[in-house]
Amino acid sequence: MDSLGFIVIFVAIVSFFFIHTWLSNRNNPVIDWPFFGMLPALLCHLSNIHDYATTVLKHYEGTFMFKGPWLTNLDFLITIDPMNVHHITSKNFDNYIKGPKFYEIFEIMGDGIFNIDSDKWKRNRDTLHSLFKANSFESSFVKTIHKKLESCLVPLLNNASELGTVVDLQDIFQRFTFDNICSIVLGFDPNSLPNKLIDKFPENAFETAFNKMEDGMFYRHIAPRFLWKLQKWLQIGQEKSYGECGKIIDQFLHQFISSTFQEQNKFNYTKDDDESNFNMLKALVMESGMETIEPKFLRDNALNLLAAGRDAISASLSWFFWLVSTHPLVEAKILEEFRENLITKEENWFITSRLEILNKLVYLHGALCEALRLFPPLPFEHKSAVKSDILPSGDHVNANTRILYSLYSMGRMEQIWGEDCLEFKPERWISDKGSIIQVPSYKFIAFNAGPRSCLGKNITFIQMKIVAIALLLNFQFEVVEGHNVCPCLSVILHMKHGLKVKVTKRGIN
Ligand code: HEM
């Protein structure tokens, strides 16, 4: 037989397998193709990946095995079954680690708390936990937010309302939270948020690098490992930009770390230092002891805290304000609650951070939880099994199996939230007695569950409430007609096209 004959037979056999696979799977939401695995389905639905994953997971009753292309090591088990998630995050916690593959993807984060496991993680968590518990942490966080609101965010929105200009609220929140978290972690305010509208908001190389860094992390989730490794080696494409971001971030952080060391040598900080002078770098040096602390420990933890404090809160604020401005009845109830609890005759705009007042705002709390349920800023989490195990759903897990649980899809499960799970309904969080209903963290998963749950949860609610009060009492936000609000492809659930709104002043009484 000549070579043409071989080619014809080869093509016929391959076609047979592809057609057979298609015919036997065409009613399934995802097809496992010979050679390519399920990657084609993933790529076809990349633009709405979270909703697609939700549909697929519902079809397979909460758990299924994603098959990557042959020999690419891209297989993982994906689940939204709350009992599986409880098992992975808490009950059999020691068996489910972040692991070396997670570390590779989030390489830039170094040995910061998000990236590490076992004893190293435990020591790191204990250190950070004691910083988060300190009164000086919460009070300086609140003071910083307060100052930024008063000096920049409120004046800027006032200016936007006077000029009638459309603004991108997401960009504004990113700048706001970036300035706040830099002040808290580094003791330095980059002033990326102006106090009035100018042609172009200031560019900050560090902040831009941060955004690109997230794109790079997402790319490493979906590209086969050999491909991004090759790109990294050749320094091309997405990997080139990931590498460049790392350098910018390192340069930026280096200056603060060196000055923290110099100042410590000069002034020898003590734990009784003036609270108004608080920053987390200094506090980490004090907590760990100058003799033992390494600059890399400070660099990695500073970066991890900056990432946690900027992105998750700014994304949540954007989704919250979008939901509220598109649900007038919810907005009216939030304002009613403010009127009952907050407004004093003397003040025409009100910024409060008094915890006893914030705690009274049950409906606002419910609305924030709803936004976090429907749009969790970290839309998915992944772990790796140390030893083989059987999940509560009966699914078998081998050692080194990668497991992904979708926080986004879990927020949209009828089994947890009922048939109206897609509705924005703060009432679902409020009991008949008018208090907040506590939902176990393996069901309301936005802050993760178990020993690795978020250390910043309390401070997040405080910050979001302070911002919600100051902005909703003073302004009304109208989303620009036709503006397309949808999630972008990233490890953080930002809005792809931002949040374009028109701002008008609100009379509060
Ligand atoms: C809306 C706001 C926030 C959300 C939804 C959120 C969510 C999460 C999630 C899902 C995790 C688990 C991440 C993982 O294991 O890969 C996490 C961990 C963590 N978060 Fe947050 N976070 C928020 C704000 C913050 C803030 C403001 C801080 C501090 C400034 C913070 C500090 C941390 C830390 C230190 C961890 C690591 C815990 C560990 O691995 O032991 N978070 N957060």
TrEMBL record:
Its cofactor is heme. One of its GO terms (biological process) is lipid metabolic process. The chain crosses the membrane at residues 6-23. The keyword Cell membrane does not apply. Pfam families: p450. Keywords: Heme, Iron, Membrane, Metal-binding, Monooxygenase, Oxidoreductase, Transmembrane, Transmembrane helix. GO terms for molecular function: heme binding; iron ion binding; monooxygenase activity; oxidoreductase activity, acting on paired donors, with incorporation or reduction of molecular oxygen. It comes from the Eukaryota. Heme binds at residue 454. CDD domains: CYP86A. PANTHER family: CYTOCHROME P450. Belongs to the cytochrome P450 family. This is Alkane hydroxylase MAH1-like. It comes from Arachis duranensis (Wild peanut).
